[in-house]
Give the backbone structure.
Amino acid sequence: MCYSYYIPRLFHLSGLQLHPPIFRFKIELKQLLFCFLKLQCPKNYKKCEREKCGRFCYRYESNQCQSWFDARQICQNEGGDLMVPSECSYQFFRERASLNEGSCSQFWIGGRTETPGYNYVTVKGDVIPQNNSFSYWSIGQPDGGGESCLEMRMNFNNYLMNDYYCVVKEGFICQFFLK
């Protein structure tokens, strides 16, 4: 049963002393409630299993190539957004990309700029550093030139961040936060 190991602990911490039949009923009721309240990823999403990654689920779409804006709209329609670059999301992406599935070879992620080459921000509004301390940028990136959206692009056998034209159709990665 889901979360059954939490139940006795809850009663122990609350100091409740219940007779065995009542205690058993209360445990079964609590287990049932925990099962219904269990946080689950939406359909087509996979939960990040790394403990330090928090409560995120990801959808890796390599068959349905879209523009950056259309990809973001799809993610938002599902209650999420394009993947925000971080250590955990990057590791999840690399694991899935290594499977080499689908027809899309580059992938939109949740970052863009209004002024190509300057101040890239995530879809959450956080600035993405543009120096070597942020190790996900490909060498020489971002380079501007009218390229306003961020993608993960294969570069020397590794996927790294690159700025690119938002209208190009690519795969995408959605990120969903379990509330």
